[in-house]
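User: Before I run my own analysis I want an independent prediction to cross-check against. Here's the chain; please return only the structure tokens and, at the end, one sentence I can use as a sanity check.
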Amino acid sequence: MKAKRRVTTSADARPGGVKRGLSPRRRGQAALPPAPVVTPRPARPRTASTIEAVPDRPAPTVEVDLSVDLGRGLVLANPILVASGTFGYGIEYGDVVEVNRLGAICCKGTTLRPRIGNVTPRVTETPGGMLNSIGLQNPGVDAVVEKYAGTWTGWKTAVIVNVAGESVADYVEVVRRLDGVPGVAGIELNISCPNVGRGGLQFAIDAGAAGEVTAAVRRATDLPLLVKLSPNVADVRPIAKAIADSGADALTAINTLSGIAVAPGRGRPLLGNIYGGLSGPAVKPVALRVVYEASQAVKIPVVAIGGVTELADVLDFLAVGAVAVQVGTAIFADPTLPVRLVDELAAEAGRRGMTSYRDMIGTALPKKAGPSSAKGVEYRP
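Assistant: Structure tokens:
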């Protein structure tokens, strides 16, 4: 095992530089009131946000610490990340988003060899979300390192590379090629991929397979390792435990739900690959459930993904145990949303008189771990 390295990111020194816009909201949901003004102090720590009192409510300035530790030295300036597949490799949004103000960027799924992706159509809107069947289109790990790593090195924001594969050997080889590359701050394993060695069974839906691939990757690198849970299981807890016991530093939850859409005329499924991954506000209740259960099952950090469109969603995920969130599908409608959420979270903590957003984490968790949702939703007369 190599010596542990310290990966620390810092916030940009120019808060409040993005104009406020309208974030996507669920139908019938009222808008949140504008957040208090965010103003820097001359000597403010780079991992904290300073919230000044509004003029009509004089109060002492509250220094809010937004930093979050995801393990193995990966300390982020704030808990607002962008999800894999929705932010490219980061440079695509450089002209419209202050990338240095994000907590971290999870880049597109990266495989050992280039992939051209699935046949079209690949994407369609759904009520409350979208279905995508991109098929992990990417240029392969070597091309990703050559083209993007140099740019990542100059950013203050951490870049976490999302890794996919069809076998344990695939995952291990991709990670070996990323290990030690400047600009790569961590790994996120997308284990919702078919394991060709086990008849195409997804790694993510079998505790043994999930633990096996996690352990193999852990042996191959000392980079911070996040593993992404699938919601397409009856009970996520044994899978989460297997991943944690195999050396993961954090969990991310959730990946997309499997779904289909029907083509106009109703003579065939719409997507060229038939099946797609459902994301967006429609999956938020499922994501909340998985984060709620996983947070009770493991002691490592859980990063939430699924339907984040506004501050209320962030607060909900924190309440059920998440230490951070990834913003995904909503970025397509409003690329500035993640940066705005950083300011809004700091403002909300300041409004409550908190010195750290971490006081919001786990407020909805039970004192003792409860039963799985599979038992909790049983009919009772």
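Sanity check: Residues 113 and 314 are 36 Å apart (CA to CA).
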